[in-house]
């Protein structure tokens, strides 16, 4: 065998010299067209994922696979060549779940890097790399975590995912809008349409499966999945724009059936555990706890018909973003936390933000500004943890904000910090700023940073500091853009707030 580097392995996979290798006999088409992934690490395990599809864009959404279970072998090793295999076995991929696999492994060692691969239909998958979480009650550091959101296929190429993979994170959080539901050509960015999706607006299970297949066949996205474990939560576009509970943004028949189809397709295509709920915790020893929230399924419908407007109804005390059960789960997690950093992985803008400079206040009602009482309850509970940090997606730009005790008093106490990642592609190429950025920031002095380029956010956790790099691309309407660090901020232990480093 020739000498192989880690990069070669992660880009192409390896057909090794063991009996697990693909054979040279006649065989059907490659079923691993959608790549591999891992997710939701624990100290002794991780979820391994793949989905078999020899014809990923087949009209029925079933990937050209036969209507029968397919045997899939798998291996986990602690070296790139698979000479030290630690676990292996076989299972079946079933047609009722679009031949997807979710292996919930246990029995691995904590805080370790592992490599994995699959074999089916005489084909060998590429190699993926994953990692288990550190042991409980240990401050294993540093942790390099990247987070991203909002990948509209038509608005650009997924170069940001490849650049994220090249930054070699230990963990990736995706905060929603992994896919978009629109039919081709109707959801344009200011930069236009860079490439086209197939099919109609996603409504049926077959529609959603085909849309995921087009996204997951993208080689840049496959790179990001293969480099590290992910923890994911949905926002609106995985289902339909600005949905809330069982309420769509615009009236439509049988939305409950549409939502159920979208939920099933999401599970089939994400490296998540089988669970009755999406909200959950990822614990990284005692260094960090990530509280991954679902801000769509349990919320009250948006106030005043949604949108950007002046709306007294948004202040009603009964309005909820999280719902009673999830809110109680979150607050119990705060009370029992021993983590140095407690991090909310969630979808929509948390901090107050007045979009209209001057005496008239207008707020985005799909965000936490439409659910002020619930936000106030969450902010009050930040006192229960040592270092609260809010991570956000959704708004297609990078922002840094300080969560204040009183939003309309800039001198009031800072209680937490919000980091908002820009989009992977949504919004097109973007710009450094808007014409009215300066006026916006004067109206909202707790907001310390804004940039309108596409990209992602890279963070580095240590016991003493959380350091954040807002990473931006020059363009997304053609492939291959370099990435640049637009700004770097530090948050000190026990000192909430943003300190600009560069």
Automatic annotation (TrEMBL):
Record's keyword terms, sorted: Signal
Which InterPro entries did the record assign?
Metallo-depent_PP-like (IPR029052), PhoD-like_MPP (IPR018946), PhoD-like_sf (IPR038607), PhoD_N (IPR032093), Phospholipid_Metab_Enz (IPR052900), TAT_signal (IPR006311)
Gene3D superfamilies assigned to the protein according to its UniProt record, in alphabetical order: PhoD-like phosphatase, Purple acid phosphatase-like, N-terminal
**In the record, which residues are listed under signal peptide?**
1-26
User: Which intervals of the chain form a coiled coil?
Assistant: none
Ranges of residues in domain PhoD-like phosphatase metallophosphatase: 145-470
| SUPFAM superfamilies per the UniProt record, alphabetical | Metallo-dependent phosphatases
Q: Which part of the chain is the Phospholipase D N-terminal domain?
A: 34-132
Cell membrane recorded as keyword: no
Q: Which CDD domains match?
A: MPP_PhoD (cd07389)
User: What's the name of the protein?
Assistant: Alkaline phosphatase D family protein
Which source organism? Lentzea rhizosphaerae
